[in-house]
């Protein structure tokens, strides 16, 4: 009987050489006349151990990692196919404490199944949410999502059920489900993992959304930087179509749902929902005025549910296990779990799905094991490039939408980027404005002009003398306020948050003498 | 976008280029919101979206040239000039910054002798900035065409470049 070996096909694992490892294992098995079946799974999310190879044994799956092609011969010599001892052996995968202490609901199948196999998905509770939804009235599906307390995981945290209800109540001949897969925030990769490692769960979630609001067509708007996710999604869509899970008559119910992937073209702003809709319509990705809400007048002017990948991928388990099951996780008004992404200068980076309420300190110290550089943590940016920089003194803040808002931060899409004490916070503040200038859609003045002026003012603060600094800081704070209050969307409206947090918590970095040769000005993209 | 009549005659373009564009538009223009898929198709086929095909795309789509130009110029991914043989997308975003991306960026620019958006004189490499590749757990990251690389250091970049030259 053949032995099953798992080598991830996840893009991050590939970036560390997983393909070469899979090839080496195949070649070594062939040369030893061993019957090995290699499955290319998603990543378990323990990225400091990637490429992590797992072997199916009678006791369960045994993990080895990080494996390089040069390690493969030694692994065979150590009888890793039977769980043999080796310096790279990590033990039973499910016993790895980093994984065991998590509460994986959205990521329940991550790294376990073969993402190209619909049968594997079905064997691991796949499509049970859709089966339940097919027996329900649309309003009851929407009610279940509302009762679960699920809020938009893209960053805005708007209650998903309310959005769906608005769309359900809008009368139209055509409605759409749009999945926002333009995951542009630095420090985030949970959408990518789902699309590459468990694409059927997203397809199932979108199908359920279609049934709930009466939409028969869905689009996944996917960023161009994710070619691996594109391949995985397209393969999964084909498989789902072939087996009647997508098409004119899904699962023989008489209900139709069609799905296609549309590629973005490298504009960060297209992660903003109305700008995304413009882009899907084939236009410049410029933000729309709201109202009308997309749920009433969205894609091609029709009622549209637009949700993030994680939001939609969480819907199947809610329908399968019930709203109460999901709602019982979490704290306060933040219900359920959040797949947190531990990134940047951290020893043990990866994906941690936990109920809301886990603290930043627990994440960074217990899961992360501190910084990769071994130096003290100085600042943590949560929620992407528009999120505030949180100083080490506030690490005990629980991950909860309201708790973060209270300290001027945001949970956003759950990305956590850690910086050690070598970080120059004045440079980080400058970058926030620079990024906003490069990515602004140009529709509103506070964002388009304000960001460029912001870069200039920060440059003057860094370069100027004491008096100049004080004058310009007043100007910068005033400019930030104008952007926060006057911008049309979250890009211009939130880009000042990292700037203001750097000024508030790390003021000393703006007070240094003019940059020396050793500490040059951050060089960057041309702005303006 | 209002459909507009293109009264001006089309500027002359190379037959091969015209055929390539018409092949893409014929395939894709009837789907809703077809312009981005078409531009992706043209760039995949020609390597870039030449300025001179914009009037042709506009005519096929029944749009104004300004509409098409506006879309091409809005998105960072579309290029109107040819790139080098391969494109290096180097991540400049925060997670990579926390792991030394600024130093890596300086090194890569010096090593290749180009700034962002430029192509090496031998036409081998084009260097582009990118803001997040979703490889934040393995920062700093870069992507070469569609091949993702993680934990890139100045040393590993040099070693990789050398191996590519062979």
UniProtKB/TrEMBL annotation, chain A:
The keyword Nucleotide-binding does not apply. SMART domains: NADH_4Fe-4S. Keywords: 4Fe-4S, Iron, Iron-sulfur, Metal-binding. The keyword Isomerase does not apply. Belongs to the complex I 51 kDa subunit family. PROSITE patterns: COMPLEX1_51K_2. Residues 426-471 form the NADH-ubiquinone oxidoreductase 51kDa subunit iron-sulphur binding domain. Its cofactor is FMN. This is NADH-quinone oxidoreductase subunit F. InterPro entries: NADH-UbQ_OxRdtase_51kDa_CS, Nuo51_FMN-bd, Nuo51_FMN-bd_sf, Nuop51_4Fe4S-bd, Nuop51_4Fe4S-bd_sf, Thioredoxin-like_sf. It holds the Pfam family NADH_4Fe-4S.
From TrEMBL, chain B:
Keywords: 2Fe-2S, Iron, Iron-sulfur, Metal-binding. Pfam families: 2Fe-2S_thioredx. Transmembrane segments: none annotated. The keyword Iron-sulfur applies. The keyword Transmembrane does not apply. Its cofactor is [2Fe-2S] cluster. It comes from the Bacteria. Belongs to the complex I 24 kDa subunit family. This is NADH-quinone oxidoreductase subunit E. It comes from Dyella acidisoli.
